[in-house]
Specification:
By secondary structure, the protein is mainly α. It is 74% helix and 3% strand. It comes from Streptomyces cathayae.
Length: 498
């Protein structure tokens, strides 16, 4: 990618003030590149995962079990952002936590590269753990580059950061997916490890451009708190080891003994976390009001991601079995569908960023609430569109690839309305006490959505059934309309945040 570093005049004290990156602090380039390589590794492996799970030469599982594993894995990735944010706030600070996280992710991909079913799930666990440590902290560091919530460059900065995510996500299925599907599954997973290694190296070299306080531990644990935390962690780990050892030795263990508890945690924990923050007496009245407004955004985002993330599971498995994966007679790997969304993001994100700024100058930019509601309506519309290729497949024919491309296009427009704005509004509305942790709360919305998909799959619901797809589409559209109808109430709760 061509560099856009230029000498520029910015406010004194801004991190990296001697240079800018597309008009933003120089540290954004470091975080952009780190996230790009991390997403290269993550999305490359993710594009292979459901296909590997159902392939005769892979795990050979049925579609329902594969979707459940995929959904639980995604749910776990985002569930762990909450303790990841806590770890950054209380133990190492955001900068050191991101460096450690990259190393754990790389180790996880190397474990996936081993040709053993036993180590495969361990590899998934390591990637999920490392991703949880990284996600909340790197997004927090993006927010730290700016002069507070009112910096007009802030939303644009998160949009550019989002482009870094999608640059890595675009190339990874084309490279990792092709090697995994056409050469060897585990070699594809090994390439993901290489990508993460490059990300760690780049982060260490460019970290001098980050905000100085990204190295500070905002609220370090006391000696007593460290001791208590270690005791509790050891206790729960011991309980888990004993429980699963008993199940294994008694011959009663099945995969559902892992999948069901994790999916339930993915639904229950987000609710408990929101309740705990909302009831915290340390928050002043303004912070309490903003948290009440934030719950609306959280529920909207959970419904959005429940449908959106099925683009990598439900839609991918449908494409593998029921789509004509070719254009003008040229066949391509199924994993390449996962490059459609990021290439559309890269094409449209700058347009959206410019459009919001242009409207803002005229005082006509839609509110965050309107953007969220529109995103929900669009993701619902994408599943109404999905009914067409499902009908074609039910008639015994292969659905054209362009049907799937149209679905991904509709979801992408919805994503641009909801996701970058959601990252930004989370940093704006976060109570001071929960700095990095609030970014983890935002990702818990993804956890709740993916966990719901996992529960449906475990329960035997056919997510490729027309009735279920229509029901999900209707739910999203109805939620979007509800958000729009109550926009005035939510705006009043948001206080000075717009």
């Amino acid at each position: 990618m061509a560099s856009s570093l230029t000498k520029d005049s910015v406010s004194p004290g801004t991190p990296g003030s001697e240079k800018t990156f597309f008009g933003h602090p120089r540290g954004l380039a470091t975080l952009f590149m780190t996230e790009m390589w991390e997403r290269f590794s993550y999305y490359g492996m993710r594009a292979l995962l459901p296909l590997y799970l159902v392939a005769p030469g892979g795990m050979g599982l049925n579609a329902g079990t594969a979707t459940a594993i995929y959904s639980v894995y995604l749910s776990l990735v985002y569930l762990l952002t909450m303790p990841g944010g806590w770890f950054g706030d209380r133990v190492l600070g955001p900068r050191k936590t991101v460096a450690v996280a990259g190393a754990v992710i790389m180790l996880g991909h190397l474990t996936l590269a081993l040709p053993s079913a036993g180590t495969f799930y361990a590899g998934l666990g390591l990637v999920a753990l490392g991703s949880g440590l990284l996600k909340a902290n790197i997004s927090t560091m993006v927010g730290q580059l700016y002069d507070g919530p009112d910096d007009p460059r802030r939303d644009g900065g998160f949009t550019i950061f989002y482009m870094g995510i999608n640059l890595g996500a675009f190339f990874s299925p084309l490279i990792i997916g092709t090697v995994g599907e056409s050469v060897n599954w585990h070699l594809g997973f090994a390439l993901a490890a290489v990508g993460m290694g490059l990300g760690v190296l780049q982060f260490l070299l460019g970290s001098r451009h980050l905000a100085a306080h990204s190295s500070v531990v905002p609220k370090p644990l006391s000696a007593a708190e460290k001791s208590s935390t270690l005791r509790k962690a050891a206790l729960w780990a011991g309980v888990a080891v004993v429980a699963y050892a008993v199940l294994g030795f008694s011959g009663n263990y099945t995969l559902n003994w892992i999948l069901v508890p994790l999916t339930l945690l993915g639904v229950i924990i987000p609710v408990l976390v929101l309740v705990r923050i909302k009831r915290d007496r340390d928050l002043d009245q303004a912070e309490q009001s903003k948290m009440s407004a934030y719950i609306w955004f959280f529920v909207a985002a959970a419904i959005f991601w429940m449908i959106y993330d099925q683009g990598g599971s439900t839609l991918a498995i449908f494409a593998d079995s029921s789509a004509e994966n070719s254009v003008f007679g040229w066949e391509f790997p199924v994993s390449w569908y996962q490059s459609v969304n990021p290439v559309l993001i890269m094409a449209m994100a700058p347009v959206f960023a410019w459009f919001w700024l242009a409207l803002n100058r005229r005082g006509k930019e839609p509110s965050t609430i309107v953007k969220f509601g529109s995103g929900l309506v669009l993701v619902g519309a994408s599943f109404f569109l999905f009914l067409a290729p499902l009908s074609i497949a039910e008639g015994g024919h292969k659905a054209a690839a362009m049907w799937l491309v149209a679905i991904y296009f509709t979801q992408t427009v919805g994503e641009l309305l909801l996701s970058p704005v959601g990252l930004s509004v989370t940093t704006k509305m976060a109570p001071v006490k929960y700095a990095s942790q609030m970014m983890g709360v935002w990702f818990l919305a993804v956890t709740a959505g993916d966990a719901t998909t996992g529960l449906l799959s475990i329960a035997g619901v056919d997510l490729n059934g027309s009735g279920v797809v229509a029901m999900e589409a209707t739910l999203a559209v109805a939620a979007g309309v509800a958000v729009w109808m109550y926009r005035s109430k939510v705006k009043s709760l948001m206080g000075d945040v717009r």
